[in-house]
Amino acid sequence: MAIHRVNTDDYPEQLQHKATRLREAFSAFTDLQPEVFPSPPEHYRLRAEFKVWQEKGRAHYAMYRQGEYKQPFIIDEFTVGSELMNRLMPQVLEAVNDSEVLRKRLFSAEFLTTLSGDALITLIYHKQLDEEWEAAARALQQKIGYPIIGRSRKQKVVLERDYVTERLQIGDKTYQYKQVEGSFTQPNGEICRAMIGWAKDACRDSEGDLLELYCGNGNFTIPLCEHFDKVLATEISKVSVNSAQENIRANGVTNLDIVRLSSEEFTQAIDKVRPFRRLKDIDLDSYDFSTVLVDPPRAGLDNDTCAMVARFPRILYISCNPETQLENLRELSKTHRVERFALFDQFPYTDHTESGLLLVRK
């Protein structure tokens, strides 16, 4: 069975349904209609992972319904994927099927692309990768013009590089980001641009300093630096912190420090519960934080972090799970009111909704 094109004619109605559902869910806390940021109806997804279904000596891209791993859905087109991804997919598959070395025991293929035209392909195997595989992969890399990575258990073979470079135009400025394979990046590039633009607009008249928790590779942090005197950001992933440091240098930012701490650890640090060696060069008392930006995982803010965040005059809360954001808002609404409210349609044609709130102290 093949997965064909999405029905783009249904998209406006589906998006309106999401907006209505989100407005009703938050109606106890705000009368605002959400600012709605639609996705492109096609070719919006910049990264994707495909299972590789092997049958009669041929490999096919496939996906599975949850719990149904014996019935693959063979993919002959993937119109939700970026145009670059769709251009590369058949080239990679043809090369795999022309090479026993590349095809044998291949079980997954990952594509990471950017709006600015970069790409990276990861081939994942149930076998150790040897010199013969490397030679075949280098030939494929030269043919398609983009880097290949090979992975198997406890093995990662990088032929050229393990990252892509994204360049995002936000207003009249272009921001450059190193995005490392396997680390988190926003999957919908145009929605990522919309989210950053919305956050910048919400912070346009800010004063003082910014704290950001869960900063990743600096996706929001770097564009927001121009609106604050100083910025301090935290992130727990070592890979993301290293990427963020490179992105700071690439964008010429001079008023931003990033430290590798979890939100729970930073809460302990700012409350002086215990010191952290990773903060030895950071004087927390020197900051005049006016705004905090949080973009937590689906679980939302833990109770201690939520209480800490409530001390700030302004809270910018980006969420990939409005249900947990709403749970946090029940506490935050005791001290703050909703100033702005947004819907970001990161995943069209699904029930998934992402939302943004600007909360201002009452």
From TrEMBL:
One record GO biological process: tRNA methylation
Top enzyme category: transferase
Active site residues per record: 320 (nucleophile), 320, 354 (proton acceptor)
Keyword S-adenosyl-L-methionine in record: yes
Alphabetic keyword roster: Methyltransferase, S-adenosyl-L-methionine, Transferase, tRNA processing
Coiled coil: none
Cross-referenced Gene3D superfamilies: 2.40.50.1070, Vaccinia Virus protein VP39
InterPro entries per record: MeTrfase_TrmA_AS, MeTrfase_TrmA_CS, SAM-dependent_MTases_sf, TrmA_MeTrfase, U5_MeTrfase_fam
Reaction catalysis annotation: uridine(54) in tRNA + S-adenosyl-L-methionine = 5-methyluridine(54) in tRNA + S-adenosyl-L-homocysteine + H(+); uridine(341) in tmRNA + S-adenosyl-L-methionine = 5-methyluridine(341) in tmRNA + S-adenosyl-L-homocysteine + H(+)
One GO molecular-function entry: tRNA (uracil(54)-C5)-methyltransferase activity, S-adenosyl methionine-dependent
CDD domains recorded: AdoMet_MTases (cd02440)
GO cellular component: cytosol
Residues noted as binding S-adenosyl-L-methionine in the record, renumbered to the chain: 186, 214, 219, 235, 295
EC number(s) per entry: 2.1.1.35
Summary of the function given for this chain in its UniProt record: Dual-specificity methyltransferase that catalyzes the formation of 5-methyluridine at position 54 (m5U54) in all tRNAs, and that of position 341 (m5U341) in tmRNA (transfer-mRNA).
Family matches, as PANTHER family: TRNA/TMRNA (URACIL-C(5))-METHYLTRANSFERASE, TRNA_TMRNA (URACIL-C(5))-METHYLTRANSFERASE
Family to which this protein belongs: Belongs to the class I-like SAM-binding methyltransferase superfamily. RNA M5U methyltransferase family. TrmA subfamily.
Name of the protein this chain belongs to: tRNA/tmRNA (uracil-C(5))-methyltransferase
Organism: Microbulbifer marinus
